[in-house]
UniProtKB/TrEMBL annotation:
Protein name as catalogued: STE24 endopeptidase
Family: Belongs to the peptidase M48 family.
Source species: Methylovirgula ligni
InterPro entries for the chain: CAXX_Prtase_1, Peptidase_M48, Peptidase_M48_N
The Peptidase M48 domain, residue ranges: 215-408
Main subcellular localisation: endoplasmic reticulum
Location in the cell: Endoplasmic reticulum membrane
Length: 409
C-alpha cells in the first residue's frame, strides 16, 4: 500500500471512530438524564415527554453508530475492492472518453445509493414511525425517491459531461471555471428551487386571509421586509415535524410555513418564529452561508485540480488513471476530512441562531419565542440534555436550554 492510500484509509477509520464515539456519548448523556426533567422546564415539559425525547434521541444515536461503522466500511470496500470491477464493467461496454467517465460516476452513485437505501427505509418506517412522526406511505416514499433520482440524473449528467470536457480543454485552469460555474448554478438553484423544484415534492398554498395573515403582514412591514408571498406547505403529508423557512432572493423571497407549525402554535409564537427568520435576513446570514460554501467549494476544486494534475491518485489504489476514478476517490476521501470541519461550520451556524433569536426578542419580546422553542423541542422530541462534545460537532442550532438562557438574559 502506498503512503497516500494509507493516509486516506487512516482518515476514513479515524473519522468513523470519532463519529461512533460522539454518538455513543450522546446516547449516554441522554440516558444519564432520563430520570428527571431539567429544572428550568419542570413547569412546561412533563416527565413522560422528557423520557420520550430521551428514548428518541438514544434510538437515533444508536442507529447513527451502526451507520457510521457501515459508512466507513463501505468507503474502504469501494476504494480497495469495488471500484475496479465496476470501472472494468463500464470500460468493457463503453470506449474511452467522456461518456465512459460519466457512466462510471453514475453507476458508482447508483450502487452507493442502493447500499444506503436500507437506512433511509428503516429510519422512515421504523424509527420515525415508532415515535409517531412518520406519515409517509411506502408508495409515497418510492415516488419521492424516483423523483429525486430523476432530478439528479437530469441535472447531474450534463454537469458531469461539462466537468470532464472542461478538464480536457483547459487542464490548468478548469477548476477556476468549474468553481465559478458551480457558484452560478448554486445561486440559480436558490432562485428556481421554490418555484420549480420544491413543488415537485410538496403543495404550496398561499396563506388564507385572516387575522394570522394580517399580523404577519404587519410584522413584515414593521421590519421593512419585502416578500413575494406567504405560503403554507403540506409538510404533514410526510412528517409531523414542524418548521418555517425562507427561500429565494430579493423581492422574490417566499416565506413558507409548515402546516404542522401553524396547527400547534399560538399566533404570538408563530410571529416569533417568523421574527427569528427575519433576523437571519437582517444579519445577512444567507449571504454568509453562500460565502462559506464558496470557500469550501474553492478548496474542494483546488484539491481536485491537484489530484487530476498529479495523476498518481488512482495508481495508489491500483486503479487506472481515468478522471472519473480520480473524482470518486477524492469525494470518498474528502468525507472524513469534512467531519473535522464540522465544529467550525456548526459554530458559525449556532452563532447566527443566537443573533436571530436576539432579533426576535427585540421585535416581539422574549416570552413568545421561549414558549415557541419549548413547544418545538417538545413536539419534535429534541433532547434537553445533549452531550456537549456531540453538540460541538453535530448541532447546527444551539440546544434549546441554551437558547432560552440567552433569551432570558
Ligand atoms: Zn434560525
Amino acid at each position: 500500500m502506498t503512503a497516500l492510500a494509507a493516509l486516506v484509509f487512516a482518515a476514513i477509520v479515524l473519522s468513523g471512530l470519532l463519529n461512533t464515539y460522539l454518538d455513543w456519548r450522546q446516547a449516554a448523556a441522554v440516558r444519564a438524564h432520563r430520570g428527571a426533567v431539567p429544572g428550568a422546564f419542570a413547569g412546561t415539559v412533563t416527565l413522560e415527554e422528557h423520557q420520550r425525547a430521551a428514548d428518541y434521541t438514544e434510538a437515533r444515536a444508536r442507529l447513527a453508530i451502526i451507520e457510521a461503522i457501515y459508512d466507513a466500511d463501505l468507503a474502504i470496500i469501494w476504494l480497495a475492492f469495488l471500484l475496479r470491477p465496476v470501472f472494468h464493467f463500464v470500460a468493457a461496454h463503453i470506449p474511452a472518453g467522456l461518456t465512459r467517465s460519466v457512466a462510471t460516476v453514475v453507476l458508482v452513485t447508483a450502487i452507493s445509493y442502493l447500499l444506503t437505501l436500507p437506512f433511509s427505509i428503516y429510519k422512515t418506517f421504523r424509527l420515525e414511525a415508532q415515535f409517531g412522526f412518520n406519515r409517509t406511505t411506502p408508495a409515497m416514499f418510492a415516488l419521492d425517491q424516483a423523483k429525486a433520482a430523476a432530478l439528479q440524473l437530469v441535472l447531474g449528467v450534463p454537469l458531469l459531461y461539462g466537468l470532464f470536457a472542461l478538464l480536457r480543454a483547459l487542464p490548468n485552469l478548469w477548476w477556476i471555471f468549474a468553481w465559478a460555474a458551480m457558484m452560478a448554478i448554486m445561486v440559480a438553484m436558490i432562485v428556481i428551487f421554490p418555484t420549480f423544484i420544491a413543488p415537485l415534492f410538496n403543495k404550496f398554498t398561499p396563506m388564507a386571509e385572516g387575522p394570522m395573515r394580517a399580523s404577519i403582514v404587519a410584522l413584515l412591514a414593521k421590519c421593512g421586509f419585502e416578500s413575494n408571498g406567504l405560503f403554507v406547505m403540506d409538510a404533514s403529508k410526510r412528517s409531523a415535524h414542524g418548521n418555517a423557512y425562507f427561500t429565494g432572493f430579493g423581492k422574490a423571497k417566499r416565506i413558507v410555513f409548515f402546516d404542522t407549525l401553524l396547527e400547534k402554535h399560538t399566533s404570538d409564537e408563530i410571529l416569533s418564529v417568523l421574527a427569528h427568520e427575519l433576523g437571519h435576513f437582517k444579519f445577512g446570514h444567507v449571504l454568509q452561508r453562500i460565502g462559506e460554501s464558496a470557500l469550501l467549494a474553492l478548496a474542494g476544486f483546488a484539491i481536485l485540480h491537484w489530484a487530476f494534475a498529479a495523476g498518481t491518485l488512482p495508481a495508489a489504489f491500483h486503479l487506472p488513471n481515468d478522471p472519473a476514478l480520480v473524482l470518486i476517490i477524492v469525494m470518498t476521501a474528502m468525507g472524513p476530512f469534512g467531519s473535522l470541519l464540522a465544529p467550525l461550520t456548526n459554530f458559525l451556524s449556532r452563532r447566527a441562531e443566537f443573533q436571530a433569536d436576539a432579533f426576535a426578542k427585540s421585535t416581539v419580546g422574549a416570552a413568545p419565542m421561549i414558549s415557541a422553542l419549548t413547544k418545538l423541542s417538545r413536539d419534535n422530541l429534541a433532547t434537553l440534555t445533549p452531550d456537549w462534545l456531540y453538540t460541538i460537532f453535530n448541532y447546527s442550532h444551539p440546544p434549546v436550554p441554551e437558547r432560552i438562557a440567552h433569551l432570558e438574559g
